[in-house]
Write a structure and sequence with these properties.
Elements lengths: L3 E6 L6 E6 L4 E5 H6 L10 H26 L4 H10 L4 H13 L5 H15 L4 H10 L4 H8 L4 H16 L8 H13 L4 H8 L4
Antiparallel strand pairs: 1-2, 2-3
Helix pairs in contact: 2-4, 3-4, 6-7, 8-10, 9-10
Length: about 210
Amino acid sequence: MPAVIRLTQQKNHSNRYNCFLDNDERISITDDLIFKFDLSAGKELTEDELIKLKSEADKVFTREKALELLSLREHGSGELRTKLLQKGYEKTHIAEVLDYLKDKNYLNDERFAELYSEELIQRKQLGPMKVKEKLFQRGIALQVINSILLNYDREIQIKNCYFHFIKKFKAKTTFDTREEKAKAIRYLQGKGFSWDVIAVIINNEK
């Protein structure tokens, strides 16, 4: 059975310790796990205890990383899951942590979607299709996305579409060629606006 050689506190994390074993393993753990597993120099661990210790440590670090990311800004659960997976945390622990965060209301997809869509619509002034695309990329459920888009007023869509039109084409009211007009339409479609909104701008109906 592997035995603990020593426990040393990590320099950059006051609650984390390196647990060195005589089988040349080094496990990063938290201070509460030292007490939970009664760890000290010379303590022998069974294989089951070692597996459980590693699992418990990964779960704790998964939660800590999730909370760290949420402290920087709001996240959707899908986006947060992807980030944690990319950092190498276990899927089962990620699922447990996400459930924990939702129970505590630290993680709320509806709240995140509202805040993010507000930025996309009011600050970036994007059209509905682009808003839908970006929310979907952040892992927001279609039901939540569709609910938000129902409140995206047509007049605001026209105003936002006009903003991008003026920004790109200045005060242009006519197009010299069909190709030039088609280019403008494609540009506004790329900003997420539908043809019926674009037509108001392109045909100078404002």
